[in-house]
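Field reference: sequence -> structure
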Amino acid sequence: MFRPLQPFEPANVTGVPHTPGIYIIYKKDGTPYYVGRSRVDIFNRLWKHVHKLGSRKITEALDQGIRLDFEYQQMVSIEQAEAILIKELGVLRFGNLRRESDPADWT
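Structure field:
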């Protein structure tokens, strides 16, 4: 599924592939802080975030010295990405997540 959780630092983002995908950025306590996707290049999106050129929220967290971790998954389809996120984040704590499965499993 997702690549192992690692500190959200430029050296770790360097290893992210230049492919479509999804990512989750967490606070150190394990709380999801930001969920994102790129239909083109997750490396580029994460690179912008880690260098404070992306999300204002991530920039604010980094400026405040909040330590963040991240994980990512290369994406085959939008439906697969959604199913993976729902599985990872669960459905009980978030009102907008539906109980769905990966469309690849549909017969």
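Note: The CA atoms of residues 83 and 102 lie 5 Å apart.
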